[in-house]
């Protein structure tokens, strides 16, 4: 139940800030209120849903202020995890990282259908690559925090559907990879910081120019 609801929240099925009503969710998923409450509580812990006293649960709302805080926190957490990975990761970690980058590099970022949007396959490959970058840190708690922040960032991308006509995303990913494999922690974390900040700047522009966000057509 939790996995299914999480996948649909991440997939943009629900609007930002939308109230998640138990009756509608019970009908949609065929689950009891207690099961739904447990799943929603886990999503709150993962930063995908908010809980409000006497109101219930809502999908995480979006704002420029939250995006800035999310970006700064993600840079701090994933930079630390990447430094640990470079210090502690072995050949198996390097091999997995190269394989994830290979898949990402060969997966089309945008869909062929209209309206054009970021493809589900690219989103999955992108998440796997960034997970692989820090997988060698040997800190389950750090990885768990990073995963929640990454999910929240993914939601911002899906909801705003930004346009990035002149951006070399593949080049950014390659620079992070090359510095990481060279075991240059300073260069790798700087490349990672620049990558996250570039994304945040584009998303902020998209959010600032929209009266409100709507879920992309699916």
TrEMBL record:
Coiled coil (residue ranges): none
GO terms, molecular function: DNA binding; DNA-binding transcription factor activity
InterPro entries: GntR_C (IPR011711), TF_FadR/GntR_C (IPR008920), Tscrpt_reg_HTH_GntR (IPR000524), WH-like_DNA-bd_sf (IPR036388), WH_DNA-bd_sf (IPR036390)
Keyword terms, alphabetized: DNA-binding, Transcription, Transcription regulation
Domain HTH gntR-type, residue spans: 1-62
Annotated protein name in UniProt: FCD domain-containing protein
């Amino acid at each position: 139940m939790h996995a299914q609801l999480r996948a649909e929240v991440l997939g943009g099925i629900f609007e930002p800030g939308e109230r998640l009503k138990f009756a509608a969710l019970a009908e949609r998923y065929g689950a009891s209120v207690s099961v739904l409450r447990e799943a929603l509580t886990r999503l709150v812990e993962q930063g995908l849903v908010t809980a409000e006293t006497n109101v219930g649960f809502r999908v995480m709302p979006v704002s420029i202020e939250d995006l800035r805080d999310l970006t700064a926190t993600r840079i701090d957490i994933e930079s630390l995890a990447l430094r640990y990975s470079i210090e502690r990761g072995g050949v198996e970690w390097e091999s997995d990282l190269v394989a994830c980058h290979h898949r990402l590099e060969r997966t089309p970022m945008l869909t062929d259908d209209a309206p054009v949007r970021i493809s589900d396959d690219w989103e999955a490959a992108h998440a796997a690559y960034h997970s692989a970058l820090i997988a060698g840190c040997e800190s389950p708690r750090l990885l768990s925090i990073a995963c929640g922040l990454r999910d929240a960032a993914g939601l911002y991308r899906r909801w705003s559907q930004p346009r990035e006509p002149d951006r070399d995303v593949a080049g950014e990913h390659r620079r992070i990879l090359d510095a990481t494999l060279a075991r240059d922690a300073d260069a790798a974390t700087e490349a990672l910081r620049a990558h996250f900040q570039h994304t945040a700047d584009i998303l902020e522009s998209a959010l600032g120019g929209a009266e409100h966000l709507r879920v992309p057509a699916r």
